[in-house]
Amino acid sequence: MQDVTAPGPHLVRWVNARAVLEVLRRASGVLSVSELMDHTRLTRATVIAVCEDLVQRGWAEEPDVPRGPGPQKGRPARRFAFRADAGAVLGIDLGVAKATVLVADLRGETLAQATSGMPAEAEAQRIDTIAATALRALEACGRSPRDVLAVGAGMAAPVDREGRVVGGQAFWGQFDFGLAEALDERFGWRVLLENDANLAALAEQWRGAARGVEDVAVMLAGERVGAGVLESGRLLRGHGGGFGELAFLSMVDGVGAPAGIAQLAREWGAEAATEGGLGGMPPEEVSAEAVFAAATDGDEAARAVLDRIALVMARVVAILSTVFNPELVVIGGAVADAASRLLPRIRAQLPALTATPARVEVSPLGGRAVTLGAVRRALDDVAARSLEIDLP
Amino acid sequence: MQDVTAPGPHLVRWVNARAVLEVLRRASGVLSVSELMDHTRLTRATVIAVCEDLVQRGWAEEPDVPRGPGPQKGRPARRFAFRADAGAVLGIDLGVAKATVLVADLRGETLAQATSGMPAEAEAQRIDTIAATALRALEACGRSPRDVLAVGAGMAAPVDREGRVVGGQAFWGQFDFGLAEALDERFGWRVLLENDANLAALAEQWRGAARGVEDVAVMLAGERVGAGVLESGRLLRGHGGGFGELAFLSMVDGVGAPAGIAQLAREWGAEAATEGGLGGMPPEEVSAEAVFAAATDGDEAARAVLDRIALVMARVVAILSTVFNPELVVIGGAVADAASRLLPRIRAQLPALTATPARVEVSPLGGRAVTLGAVRRALDDVAARSLEIDLP
DNA sequence: CGACTAAATTTAGAGTCTAAATTAGAGGCT
DNA sequence: AGCCTCTAATTTAGACTCTAAATTTAGTCG
Questions:
Q1: pLDDT, position A162
Q2: What is the pLDDT of residue B258?
Q3: What is the pLDDT, as a whole number, of residue B3?
Q4: Is the CB of A43 under 7 A from strand C?
Q5: Would you say the C-beta of A76 is within 7 Å of strand D?
């Protein structure tokens, strides 16, 4: 039998402060006390008390009357605003060959960005590179490392709910190079490690194709295929962070290995080239972009390759539709624009492949999905801890 | 921007009452006020006030001093207990050919059970049969229909979060025969419709193989194969209630249609019989039980059938392991004892089929999983609404 | 019968909220 | 200038809730 937490007399204040802060956070600008009252169902007295609390703690500010234009009636309203600049968060995309760091304010607006190539060698050096990149980005927007309230970081490996890279297999071990501990030690940063497809899902829900959708599967389909799944708006991770892995596709059907769009385009494009298609391009030089370009120019062989890819993707989308029964499947990753050309064909195939076809969209976020999702993850963490955080 | 709810001054009391009630509910018997204080971190004064509230409302009782044996020091403690008999819940398994109704008290102890064959014809008649069965079960334990605080009901169809059977396809339409509305109208019962595999998952988590496990996939593998998935202890439903559907297996690999263990045993058993196996049994007479019995007797052909079935099940378990990454996969359904004979073979196959093999167990609940899960579902609903319910 | 003990009850005090009454600031009108 | 109107801020009174400390109570034990 487990204990149930119990509240002190401050619980009510805590709840109300949270509610007010949440309303302020979501509002784009200043809100008058009366507006706050409408949104929270609290009394004026309470709202004012809470707001003054929040100002005290640094979460809100009361801008000095830059009042709206035109004539106004009545006593001027006190107005409060969320201090989006009270701190900052970092979103990091830990790619295989490079790392990208995004700095955002507490409303999620991007302040700066920095990218570095990643040496594949020593771990210590990788960490140094990432730290340096983060510092560069912070400097670019005039923020101090002490402003950072949370850091989201995404990598192409399963990560469990505690942020551990769970390499049962030794293969994943290389991904766990102690980044979280290192950044905590150096800067005192709270680092939230996450699978990249999961972050992409958060990003789509936040600012992408899945706004307002509660049940969605996001498929990163660039080089490898991986999926992030939201159910009832919640991210699913599974016991070891492997929720949404599609590796089983490799032992299934004609799908082959869980290869992404880019990889398939290269592979099958090269095949087509050896057989004389693609304008006789040398097979070794075939790139994904080249195949798509050729298809646009009307090359028959290239179009055939696209058809094959579309069928594969349709099958993957069908499986996602069936197993997770989402309202929407988003195709994302670095190849989003290519994917949008496959979209009509995928949609056409889908009803034949599943009894519960989801809506299918292509991500409007392109390659930014993972960093944005990392920012979102960090912001969620900050929001959840707001009233426990001592602002710098 | 959405409103955030705000509390009145009663919030604290509400939270505390909830906490105390929860502790009482989980305790097996009486608890002294001091014990309650330990578990809730509340003051004695508060605990007593809350308990008297709860007694007033009918949720708790203060039994008159059937004090423990042996010598005791100090003033006798006031002791309170959850009133498990303050109401009742119903758990219904709506099978294709029969309906089973379970009556349970508010702690989930079974009070009575009744089963009826189901006429496949008119819907009105089906509802009558179910209602009659429920009344029979209630009568058997001396409960009135007015005692019923919630009804859980499971059927082999996708059901969304609002309890609607979502037949995009006409096929599912037949499952939605207005049971919830009818029972509400006749008895004022709150009916919670749910997919049967989902209920099985709840049952396993409650009293089955998945106690204490947060991430689990439960596979009903009797006639058809369906799965219920819990992630972080929460049931996953998806947009239309179809989460965990495995229909895609039909277009995959050598798995064939999503047939269950019993169906495969009959089918392949009959094949084996035509080829002279199974001691020359007439193919039409081959039943699943016969195949299993023959295998136990050492029949080679029957054993071969079992091997084939084990391989199929191993593949399904592997896919569940990969996609949902649970800590545990439970094989349930009416064929649980048969499944336990397949278990070693399934476990042996698994590591070769997935990178994230889950633990595999066979359900100890047998055919009772769905009704038990339905009871659990109803109890959860009651627990969530406790303080809003007016007890009869 | 009194001492001991654990628990119940009482009392005092501090937060929090709402609701109603009062006061404050700005503009408009005569 | 003086008064009116309007909206919002502030003040005041009252009601809950909780905790903590002091006091009383109901048993057991010697």
A1: 94
A2: 67
A3: 39
A4: yes
A5: yes
